[in-house]
Amino acid sequence: YFLLILALFLFSVLGQASLTSALKKIPAPWRLKETIEQGSKIFWPFLLVSILSGIVIALGFILFIIPGIVFMVWYAFATYVLVFEEIRGWSALKRSKELVKGYWWPIFGRLMVLVLISIAASIVVNWIPYIGPLALQILLPPFSTAYAVMLYKGLKEIKKEQ
After folding, report:
1. What per-residue confidence (pLDDT) applies to 25?
2. Phi, psi (degrees; rounded to nearest 5) at 102
3. How many beta carbons lie within 10 A of that of residue 37, not counting itself?
4. Does pTM surpass 0.85?
5. CA neighbours within 13 Å on the CB side: how many for 13?
6. DSSP structure string for 58-73
7. Minimal CB count within 10 Å: which of 8, 121, 132, 133?
């Protein structure tokens, strides 16, 4: 059972890395094989940045809820920094925090919109047995990733102008 959970987790990370890499290429056409190859190339750095940000955010929540929320907003774009700017490890987290600096509240608000949409979608689809939760698991991650990438690109554009 543990190996199955581990395999699903690693497959999920590969999918997230591949999707983020594919979003980097917009408006170029996507090809599944190429997209998965791109995700495979950054799999380990993507996993590392995800684990680092997850640990920091979890420690923030352990300290008290407020630091966890602050860290969550600061490091929300760490994996996108990795994919789009090719900055790895702790440097990706630092760059994410740098992007958010001066825009913490607007980013927090936009992330809360995403959370509220996710909660509302969960409530609605849970009324549909079996298919509803499956549909949510298939549709919500790409939507969330695309939304976060748009936030990230918007921040980069704003910071470039300053």
Report:
1. 77
2. 90, -10
3. 12
4. yes
5. 18
6. HHHHHH-HHHHHHHHH
7. 8
